[in-house]
């Protein structure tokens, strides 16, 4: 459970925390954090509450548009709640843990974090909770957040989402599915493919590991695989940028395989509209970022928790040509 120390300390402690945060700002800036959100004078914004500082630390891969949506949701919640948001990220688990530690050292009021590599993140999550800093988890770590003592989680059950994808592929009569994992060992991605494998019953299934930090290599590896094995009739990718690359690889190889994916971005909306990607599973990244910040504000200002001790699911939902027009309108606004 979260410590209630911060809620009971009152205005004097908040002023002291503000001074401590200012004194250690250089540490956070060195870690690559950036701030957005509410007023700095503590006079209360649209939310009518004192200004708070919340750090969001993710395992974002540079250039991944999925995380732009997460950040936009977090920034919208911060603006509404009079919160200064310090956003930072690193795809390497030890570096992400260091960013969380920097947030602890700067005495932020709350921390929102992804748990893609839970073993690496567990010690700093424990340190944050021991320091009386509430932690919300989102996007990754569905199977681990509760054991770490985190009170609220926002995301999807990746295994169940994978099962939904596998079932749909079976219903479509696919005979050979290639599931592409862009970061080997990342628990959410591994769970997605495991779910697909478990529920795909109409043919053979295999995994292809690639490195999303080298997209030209991703394209060439997928192209070579499709040329080598023309029996592959479905490419299941686990992120929108990989799906975009899969479309290129399919063209390079002269393959007729269907491309489907997890997660969306504005470019993927166009690919679904023109039929290059058949469908996508949406976990609503904007909503995840929004809830991760807003839940901390609700807890810090009113003692509220969301979910009753269970994860708050933001997916899965299918996006295909039957509903893409509605999603496209929101994508134009940069929120889907």
From TrEMBL:
Q: What UniProt keywords apply to this chain's record, in alphabetical order?
A: Signal
A Pfam family? Peripla_BP_4
Report one GO cellular component: outer membrane-bounded periplasmic space
- What Gene Ontology molecular-function terms does this entry list? carbohydrate binding
Q: Which residues form the signal peptide?
A: 1-30
Gene3D superfamilies in the cross-refs: 3.40.50.2300
InterPro entries registered for this protein in UniProt = Bact_Solute-Bind_Prot2 (IPR050555), Peripla_BP_I (IPR028082), SBP_2_dom (IPR025997)
Q: Which residues form the Periplasmic binding protein domain?
A: 55-301
User: What are the subcellular locations of this protein?
Assistant: Cell envelope
Xref: PROSITE patterns? PROKAR_LIPOPROTEIN
PANTHER family to which the protein is assigned, alphabetical: ABC TRANSPORTER PERIPLASMIC-BINDING PROTEIN YPHF, D-XYLOSE-BINDING PERIPLASMIC PROTEIN
Member of which family? Belongs to the bacterial solute-binding protein 2 family.
Protein name in UniProt: Putative ABC transporter substrate-binding protein
Query: What organism is the protein native to?
Result: Gordonia rhizosphera NBRC 16068
């Amino acid at each position: 459970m979260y410590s209630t120390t911060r809620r009971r300390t009152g205005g004097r402690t908040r002023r002291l925390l503000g001074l401590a945060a200012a004194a250690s700002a250089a540490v956070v800036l060195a870690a690559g954090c950036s701030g957005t959100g509410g007023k700095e004078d503590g006079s209360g914004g649209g939310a009518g509450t004192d200004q708070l500082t919340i750090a969001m630390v993710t395992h974002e891969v540079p250039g991944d548009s999925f995380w732009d949506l997460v950040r936009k949701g977090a920034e919208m919640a911060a603006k509404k709640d009079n919160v200064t948001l310090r956003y930072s990220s690193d795809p390497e688990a030890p570096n992400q843990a260091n960013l969380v530690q920097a947030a602890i050292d700067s005495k932020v009021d709350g921390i929102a974090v992804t748990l893609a590599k839970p073993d690496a993140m567990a010690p700093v999550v424990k340190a944050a909770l021991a320091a009386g800093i509430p932690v919300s988890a989102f996007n990754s770590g569905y199977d681990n957040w509760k054991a770490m003592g985190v009170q609220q989680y926002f995301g999807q059950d990746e295994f169940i989402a994978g099962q939904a994808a596998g079932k749909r592929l079976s219903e479509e009569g696919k005979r050979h599915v290639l599931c592409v994992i862009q970061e080997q060992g990342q628990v959410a991605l591994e769970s997605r493919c495991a779910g697909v494998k478990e529920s795909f019953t109409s043919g053979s299934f295999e995994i292809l590991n690639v490195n999303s930090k080298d997209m030209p290599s991703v394209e060439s590896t997928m192209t070579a695989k499709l040329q080598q094995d023309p029996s592959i009739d479905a490419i299941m990718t686990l992120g929108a940028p990989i799906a975009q690359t899969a479309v290129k690889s399919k063209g390079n190889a002269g393959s007729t395989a269907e491309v489907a994916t997890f997660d969306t971005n504005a470019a993927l909306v166009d690919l679904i509209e023109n039929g290059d990607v058949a469908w996508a599973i949406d976990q609503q990244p904007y909503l995840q970022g929004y809830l991760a910040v807003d839940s901390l504000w609700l807890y810090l200002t009113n003692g509220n928790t969301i979910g009753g001790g269970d994860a708050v699911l933001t997916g899965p939902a299918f996006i295909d040509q039957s509903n893409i027009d509605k999603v496209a309108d929101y994508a134009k606004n940069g929120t889907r």
